[in-house]
Write a structure and sequence with these properties.
It is built from three helices and five strands; from the N terminus they run H-E-E-E-E-H-E-H. The chain has helices at about 5, 55-70, 80-85, and strands spanning about 10-15, 20-25, 25-35, 40-45, 75. The protein is globular and about 35 Å long. Helix content is about 35%, strand content about 35%. The protein is an alpha+beta fold.
């Protein structure tokens, strides 16, 4: 993993309905929609050149942590989020 990837922080961008990580001139994102008290995770995308480095996992963890802090129920529609929750049932 490059130092640039390691140091890039996950940001919450509520106006765009996403969590993101800037990767040079590319962006990795976890998109969501709020539906009442549900936080519906709809899509996780990481640019191909940056895949396999744990970036999607960092995005999902940040999204889930935020949902818990805010009292939202999590609804995973994104396959990556579903898989993450199966691997981390806590």
């Amino acid at each position: 993993m490059s130092e640039q990837t390691q140091n890039n922080e996950v940001r919450h961008n509520p106006e765009e309905g996403r969590f993101d990580v800037q990767l040079g001139d590319e962006l990795a994102v976890l998109e969501y929609e709020l539906d009442g008290t549900d936080m519906v995770f709809t899509s996780t995308r990481v640019p191909e050149a940056h895949r396999g480095r744990g970036i999607a996992t960092r995005l999902v963890k940040a999204g889930i942590d935020h949902a818990r802090r805010e009292g939202h129920r999590i609804e995973p529609r994104c396959p990556f989020v579903k898989a993450y929750l199966r691997r981390h049932p806590e």
